[in-house]
Amino acid sequence: xxxxxxxxxxxxxxxxxxxxxxxxxxxxxxxxxxxxxxxxxxxxxxxxxxxxxxxxxxxxxxxxxxxxxxxxxxxxxxxxxxxxxxxxxxxxxxxxxxxxxxxxxxxxxxxxxxxxxxxxxxxxxxxxxxxxxxxxxxxxxxxxxxxxxxxxxxxxxxxxxxxxxxxxxxxxxxxxxxxxxxxxxxxxxxxxxxxxxxxxxxxxxxxxxxxxxxxxxxxxxxxxxxxxxxxxxxxxxxxxxxxxxxxxxxxxxxxxxxxxxxxxxxxxxxxxxxxxxxxxxxxxxxxxxxxxxxxxxxxxxxxxxxxxxxxxxxxxxxxxxxxxxxxxxxxxxxxxxxxxxxxxxxxxxxxxxxxxxxxxxxxxxxxxxxxxxxxxxxxxxxxxxxxxxxxxxxxxxxxxxxxxxxxxxxxxxxxxxxxxxxxxxxxxxxxxxxxxxxxxxxxxxxxxxxxxxxxxxxxxxxxxxxxxxxxxxxxxxxxxxxxxxxxxxxxxxxxxxxxxxxxxxxxxxxxxxxxxxxxxxxxxxxxxxxxxxxxxxxxxxxxxxxxxxxxxxxxxxxxxxxxxxxxxxxxxxxxxxxxxxxxxxxxxxxxxxxxxxxxxxxxxxxxxxxxxxxxxxxxxxxxxxxxxxxxxxxxxxxxxxxxxxxxxxxxxxxxxxxxxxxxxxxxxxxxxxxxxxxxxxxxxxxxxxxxxxxxxxxxxxxxxxxxxxxxxxxxxxxxxxxxxxxxxxxxxxxxxxxxxxxxxxxxxxxxxxxxxxxxxxxxxxxxx
Length: 768
Prior knowledge:
Shape: elongated
Subcellular location: Cell projection, Cilium, Flagellum; Cytoplasm, Cytoskeleton, Cilium basal body; Cytoplasm, Cytoskeleton, Microtubule organizing center, Centrosome, Centriole
Structural class: mainly alpha
Strand content: under 5%
Number of helices: 34
Low-confidence stretches: 1-13, 52-80, 743-768
Region (Disordered): 1-24, 42-66, 114-134, 725-744
Largest sheet: 2 strands, antiparallel
Function: Positively regulates primary cilium biogenesis. Also involved in autophagy since it is required for trafficking of ATG16L and the expansion of the autophagic compartment.
Keywords: Cell projection, Cilium, Cilium biogenesis/degradation, Cytoplasm, Cytoskeleton, Flagellum, Repeat, TPR repeat
Strand order of the largest sheet: 1-2
InterPro entries: TPR-like_helical_dom_sf (IPR011990), TPR_rpt (IPR019734)
């Protein structure tokens, strides 16, 4: 071993820097073309430098260095250089670095100068991924399942429930294939439980959204019963919701309680919602005492508006007055946790502050606050209207108690609304005097409340046809709040009733400018344009209204009526068809359809709709007359008899219906029945000439002896009729003569009037 170890020579033995000026033939480039070893190294891979390897486990061992200048030497260093003390080409490397190692020709003969590693050639190409391996197939299938679940959720959010369900089913099928493949090549522990859970949960949700409740429950059961899903038990809430939709309230309560046991107490909000659902289920089953227990617990733990309102409902159902009052106090004490309007009022003229306030005045948070406040007001108003008649001896005293309680809370502005509702309750009870007196109390209140009360008063007087009072209160309502669309609409109604349609249209337009969603003003302005014969503008108004109120029967009828006025029967028929799809039992719409088809010459369709109209309202004389005439035209006179008999019942003093009945008997060949009917008509109307003529004709045809009697009566009646006509004619001539005499004496009458004379002494007695 020591034979390879060479000590560094002393300072006096050799110069430290000797050999640096020696010429190394390696760098002689002039004879490279004739150097056989170099040319072989260029043509082959013998001159390539070995790769640099690190001394870490698992790497390849050092390889011998191959050059064209010397024998192969084993490299034990990580950088591919000779180790200290090793011999290379017969030259020993110094053992220590105290003295310079120096460079010799022999030390440089074993390598080629290639700092950029160009002799190694290009890098090998990337290894192609093998997609046929089982692991790669599983990864691709798992990716496809995730994509299907995402597509199902997106389709559900877009409202395409059918597509969402199809995607969810497809994801379920592919996930089962994925599980089988994993079981074949790996242990069951490698199954992706999260993916299985998401696929099953999405499938159950889509079943529920498509109202396939049995399938949804089965899928939820698969999740709940699988112990490998740690939080699967919480899905019993979803199962309980389905049972609640199916009105299986006992099972819904059972599953809600099971879910409540599995949800830890840290999830306080979730537990409160489940308890609220339990209370609602108890109300549905009529177990109000159990419902009260649930809602009382919620109101004591985390009070909210829905629970407070439901608690009032339960106490109202069992008739506990005192508890209703306490529950109402709890309801109005629920904190809304919203900022009030003072926050949105600028305290100064700072432009930056004003810009900030303008930015947040109608943002999403502000809209949410408005919705929450509106919901609170709705619950309080509904609860007050519900309990007011029940908590005291009369509803008026109950309303007064509710108003006092509301005034003491932070819902002060609702007190006036409750007073107005009190007046409306009087109206429902048809106590108009008390309603008017209650509304008149608001004349000295603030402008908004005064305007609302005056609007209601104006409407009341309008219904009672007291247009003067209606106009006065409409003016008061408009003057109190010019931006109240209801007040402007009522003012327009009073002007419309007085016949000033142009001015009424101006009030309706102003109401629409203040509130574009005021459908009453839009409907009324359409009627006004119809009155003014501005048909195109009226049609535009009703078409706009139809876009807002899609199933309004009144709007559909007005559009059909306008098309009829425009002489477009096809459009009128189309809109009437839409109308009867909304109100299929409207006899007037059905008769109008029959009339339009009759005008178009389609008797069969006209008969169908006239008959449907008669079936729903068998007292319309026009429909009865058309049906009777239709059967006569089609030679089914015996079928026409029942319609004319009904018309005779509706109008017993109208002789023509009874004559039509007798005529139908005569046309159908039943002469005896026709004769009896004519005799009955003659008994009721002895001076009817037409009846006597038919009696004479029938008796003559049948050879009866009574023919002479009826001939005599007919002559006498005709003579009386002629005398009556002459008397009427002479009366007309006399009245015309009197008018001429009156115009001649007009000067005398005017003279007497101007001079204050007593006309009773001048005019003849017959003029009194």
